[in-house]
Design a protein that fits this description.
Structural class: alpha/beta
Helix content: 40-55%
Order of helices and strands: EHEHHHHHHEEHEEHEHEHHH
Radius of gyration: 20 Å
Largest sheet: 8 strands, mixed
Number of helices: 13
Number of strands: 8
Strand content: 5-15%
Shape: globular
Length: 350
Amino acid sequence: MGSSSDRTEPSPNQVRTINLALQGGGAHGAFTWGVLDRLLDEKELAFEGLSATSAGAMNAAAFAYGLAVDGREGARKSLAGYWKRVSEAARLGPLQPSVIDRMLEDHKLSWSPIFSLIGFVTRMLSPSQFNPANYNPLREVVEQSIDFSVLQRPDCPVKLFLSATNVRTGKVKIFAGNEISVDAVMASACLPTMFHAVEIDGEAYWDGGYMGNPAIFPLIYNCQSADIVIVHINPLFRNEVPRSADDILNRINEISFNSSLMREMRAVSYVTGLVTQKRVVDGGLKHVLVHSISDDAFMGALTPTSKYNADWDFLIFLRDQGRKCAGDWLAENFVKLGVESSVDVEKVYL
């Protein structure tokens, strides 16, 4: 896992370099947009690696592309441009009008916004039935927002690691370096109930959230910085036991999409114990510092169907909450970067 070395506490004006781990969560990814936007304000904060999944992968790619072409301001503009295009494309969802009309007639349903129907449709029909042409408006949005040749360059200012799930093997696939492409992003965000599997080099991929939401190990193995800041979208904890069918399904998805992260945190905790107890004699293990930016109360109060709501006012609402959450976190924990974890891994994840 790399070598560890004794660290001295950084001076107040010293630049702290961090890695970012970004979860997926549909339109709720606009919360992460706000977090990233706020982190860009900190001139004494630098970014080495980003591991991301689904909506997090889109945020990460837009962030890295903007940073490469025009620094911090470029990253800010790239993120804003991506989410604006998402909102503008929301009127052209994957459901064909004829399919919607037929469903409404067959089930005697009244019209409602498209995102409120998506959950029902995806439980009744497969993507090949309701979306035979495999139309995904997000592909065009991503292509318009990001020049992937920039992200494939060796001098890209940050390292990108995008997770997808191999459909046949069930293993996590990490796309990095020259593998970063629009197909890799779409594979990372491919919900199997909504879209056809994305094929890359003869393999089919689904959403990376099933096996890495996000994957932590690429940041441990491939980055020098010990600090990993996880931006949470899916609530880890809920006070109430779900009762309705939709709430139960939503909680199942939250638990499933957090499970791989929690397993990795167990390994991180174990290695941290070996390092701190000086049970590693050759310095061959890396002491990882874990940080978490999250707002379970806020995210938990959002309805499951709001993950499909790309209304601009709603996205701005999420962005602003993400900025506030990141600002609060920075005020309390910036001084801990490079020194110690700001989250109790055993209490939160184990």
